[in-house]
Amino acid sequence: MHLLSFQLNYFDSFGRSASKKDIKDAYRKLALKYHPDKNKKKDDKVLHEKFNKNFQLIAKAYETLSDEKKRDEYDHAQQ
Length: 79
What we know:
mainly alpha
């Protein structure tokens, strides 16, 4: 398992022109997929840590893209 691509660019995973609903839907889908408690191999500490890191990245991306001011700042920083 690898870290998610939006580690580098949130728009790659959520889309630059995505609506708030699109972002929320994508966030929920990714959050369910990568939530550490959903990890079927909870005894595997390395895999659990990767799930945890991915989940944190998803939450940070959602926090940034769901807030208009943060999204504009992030967008300008990416250009």
